[in-house]
Design brief:
- It is a single chain.
- By secondary structure, the protein is of the alpha/beta class.
- It has 3 domains: about 45 residues; about 130 residues, 3-Layer(aba) Sandwich (Rossmann fold); about 130 residues, Rossmann fold.
- Helix content is about 45%, strand content about 15%.
- The chain has a 6-stranded parallel beta sheet with strand order 2-1-3-4-5-11, with helices on both faces.
- Helix 1 packs across helix 2, helix 1 packs across helix 3 and helix 10 packs across helix 12.
- The longest helix is centred in the middle third of the chain and has 17 residues.
- The protein is elongated, with a radius of gyration of 25 Å.
- The N terminus is likely disordered.
């Protein structure tokens, strides 16, 4: 039997043999007291008729748009693409449609998306902010979840990786392999994440080991392929670089892989002449030459948790703020050499 293009809630109620209000409670986000038998009859009728809930009409009654904005800094980076996809899956399961906003690390683009959020077009926001302006996020007045650890975000739900612990995993591994002249490559965007946390941990680590920070070994670059090419040039242009650098901790895998490729083109063998370790464990990390040693971030868990926290915040705006930080996991491959330790 051919299905009608639009099925009404009244038709579902008639086929199920229940009242219109019972059907409304079953399909409503607000729920209600419905017996298992009645719910089963309604769901069977919905399946048979092909009823699709009209979220727009429902939104007019509940003051909801049924739309969520998810903002990431670089959708071309498979790390962010996977988080966005997993987050979308979780939100759609909750009845929401998702708009993905790629800021490309641009404050101007981010502000344009903020304008959309302030206009009331979205019921919630999930974002990795380019800046540390938490007041701008709170001023939007909509349920929000931050992606990425933020020390100062005590009153905003947050999901991400324990950045300090993950950075320490990378540095401890390099040190255990005999590296003593360790450089760091991060960027200036979102200083709470990349400058303060990664670099602060780096400085504390070297201090513990009795090693002074060499400012020439602190590279500030975009965490992109272009940033990796620039990093390789900066390393090679450093006077006597072979004597000053034996390993580099990169802020993400994209810059690490691009650096490996650029150094190889210049005749430098990563994994022997110099060691490189990344962070994220994107799929390409296993296929670089040499394969990249990195610290894996739990992308799927992060995306699922972000969706869960936002749905919970929308349902209960007054619930306590929650922060979920997942541990990093060392993935050893071939890009880190074993150094002889001279005593």
């Amino acid at each position: 039997m051919a299905r009608k293009q639009s099925i009404s809630i009244i038709e579902v109620a008639r086929l199920a043999g229940v009242s219109k209000s019972t059907v409304s409670r079953v399909v409503s986000d607000r729920g209600g007291s419905v017996s298992p038998k009645a719910e089963g009859l309604v769901n069977k009728a919905i399946e048979e008729l092909g009823y699709t809930r009209n979220h727009h009409a429902s939104g007019l009654r509940t003051q909801r748009s049924w739309m969520i904005l998810v903002m990431v800094p670089d959708i071309a980076n498979s790390f962010w693409a996977e988080i966005a996809r997993t987050t979308q899956d979780g939100l759609e399961a909750g009845g929401y449609s998702v708009v993905i906003g790629n800021t490309d690390w641009s404050e101007q683009r981010q502000e344009r998306y903020y304008g959309l959020a302030r206009s009331g077009r979205f019921d919630g926001l999930i974002l990795n902010s380019v800046t540390d302006d938490l007041d701008a996020i709170k001023d939007m007045g909509i349920p929000t979840v931050l992606l990425g650890e933020r020390v100062e975000a005590q009153d905003i739900d947050t999901v991400g990786t324990d950045t300090r612990a993950a950075t320490r995993i990378a540095l401890d591994f390099l040190w255990a392999r005999g590296h003593r002249r360790i450089a760091i490559a991060t960027n200036e965007h979102g200083s709470e994440r990349f400058l303060s946390l990664r670099r602060r941990t780096y400085g504390e680590f070297l201090s513990e080991k009795g090693v002074a920070v060499d400012r020439d070994l602190v590279f500030r670059l975009n965490l992109s392929e272009e940033g990796g090419k620039e990093l390789a040039k900066s390393i090679l242009s450093l006077p006597r670089w072979q004597e000053r650098i034996d390993a580099v901790f990169c802020g993400n895998d994209v810059i690490a892989i691009a650096t490996i490729d650029a150094l190889a083109a210049a005749g430098v063998a990563v994994g022997s002449d110099i060691s490189i370790i990344g962070m994220d464990d994107i799929p390409a990390a296993a296929h670089s030459r040499p394969a990249l040693t990195t610290v894996r971030k739990m992308r799927t868990l992060t995306g699922k948790a972000a969706a869960e926290l936002l749905l919970a915040r929308i349902s209960d705006p007054g619930r306590p703020t929650e922060k979920r930080l997942f541990p990093g996991e060392l993935v050893t491959r071939a890009s880190v050499a074993e150094r002889c330790i001279h005593t």
